[in-house]
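User: Sequence for Peptidase M54 below. Tokens please.
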Amino acid sequence: MIRVVTLDLFDDKQLAKLNRTLYTAFGVGSEHSGSAEMPPGLGEPVDAEKLLEQVKGIRAYQDDKVLLLTSRKLKERELPSGTAPTPGFARQGKDRSVITTQPHKDLEVGFKPVARQALHQLGHLWELHHCLDPRCSMYPPWTPSFSQGEPIFCTFCREKSEQKIRLAKS
Ligand SMILES: [Zn+2]
Ligand SMILES: [Zn+2]
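Assistant: Structure tokens for Peptidase M54:
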């Protein structure tokens, strides 16, 4: 199942809405599994890779996928073309990801783009790759149109994620 772990305070109703959206997208249970402490010394903006390595107190079973949720800014990534904002981060096929509600005021105001980012990073945990369908949450997130889209998958990515989830369970 999907375990949403909060690193800052969030509204319960908005978290419930996010879990419903994740459940609809993946067809697998999603719940708020409590909060964790931001590791000391990371400062802000937060280094997403270090955060995933250092965060403690995450209770999850094998095959669970963890989505850390923060309202703090994540450190920009260095790309050959310059720096890029980091709305989320996950390593392909691993068990932990992180997203931020930044640059939105909160989860309510930024619900759609934040939920879309959540689908994208969790999709990577289930080994989905970037997708060419601009409506799909696996579309490259650095594209200008990404944040305008809905938190949904295309048929191909939905089926692929269902396959991966079934494989993980067996
Ligand atoms: Zn990606
Ligand atoms: Zn897709």
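The chain has one domain: 2-169.
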